[in-house]
Amino acid sequence: DAFIIAADTLTQNPNTGQVFRKPNNLEEQKVQALKTAGQPVRIISGVSIFHKGKEIEAAISESVVTYQDFNEQTLERLMENDNPTIRSSILGMFFDAAGFTLVEKVEGSYTGAFGLPMEIVYPHLRDVN
Predict the structure, then answer these.
(1) Contact 51/78 with Cβ under 8 angstroms?
(2) How far apart are alpha carbons 106 and 74 in whole angstroms?
(3) Residue 48 burial (CB < 10 Å; 0-12/13-18/19+)?
(4) Residue 44's Cα: distance from chain center in Å?
């Protein structure tokens, strides 16, 4: 009777269409992150939900995160105690990620920017008896 919920994200520059991939090392992550300074980043989160006896639902959520303007020195200070290479969304929107402190605004799905759009998931959980 359990749910299966699967989600993943794609992060891109909405102006150029460039997709940001998971960095291979800290230097690559830093180069990618500096490209987001003062810029919007589109986060597309896909989620599929399966519950026994029901059809699989698949949906997409979109968010645009605009980062504050920052420089390499600020980024290095924030990355000091972080491992950003575990995230595909460059700086990360997780509360424990360095990038969280650099967010200027979030448009669209706030939880989708974190990677799990609860506006899609919660109605399924709410309706379970």
Answers:
(1) no
(2) 21
(3) middle
(4) 8
- 17-66 residue pLDDT tens: 988 887 777 788 788 888 888 889 999 999 999 988 888 889 999 999 89
CA distance 89 to 22: 7
What are the residues whose beta carbons fall under 8 Å from the beta carbon of 47, sequence distance 6 or more?
A: 5, 6, 7, 58, 59, 60, 61, 116, 117, 120, 121
**Which tens digits make up the pLDDT trace of 66-80?**
988 988 888 777 777
Sheet containing strand 40-51, edge to edge, reads 19-20, 3-12, 40-51, 57-67, 103-108
CA 114, CA 99: separation in Å to the nearest integer?
Answer: 12
